[in-house]
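As promised in the previous annual report, we have extended the structural survey to additional targets. Below is the entry for Small auxin up regulated protein.
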Amino acid sequence: MSHGGLAPQGYLAIYVGRERRRFEIRAEHINHPVLRGLLQRTEEEFGLNQTGGLAIPACQVVLFEHLLWMLDNHDTAHLLQDPSELSELLDLYVPKRATLAGIACSTREKNLPTPTSAAHSG
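The corresponding C-alpha cell record, generated without further manual editing, is:
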C-alpha cells in the first residue's frame, strides 16, 4: 500500500472507508464477484458522483483488509454457489442504507451510540 501516485503495474488503487484509506489491490481482484458486488452496492447507495478515484466509503477498513486476505488466501468459489451467501457477505461489508437506518433507530431507542457517533468517538 502506498500513499499516493500511480499504483504499480498489475494493481489498482481503491479508497476505503470514511477516511479513504488507499489500498493497492491486484487488478485481477476487480473481477471477483464479491468486489464487483461491493462496487455495485456502492454505486447504488452513493451514486457515481464520487471524486478522487475508485472508492467504497461505507466499508470499514478492517473488513476490507479481511476481504483482501480472504481473496488472497482462500477459495471463495463457494460464494458463487449460493447467491444468498454472497448477498449476506455484501451486507456485512457495505450495509444498505435501510440497514444502517434500522441500526441507528434501534440504538437511539436503547440510548446507545449510533454507528456514526461511535465511529467519531474512537
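The chain has a mean pLDDT of 73. The two ends are 24 Å apart (CA to CA). These points will be discussed at the next consortium meeting with the crystallography subgroup.
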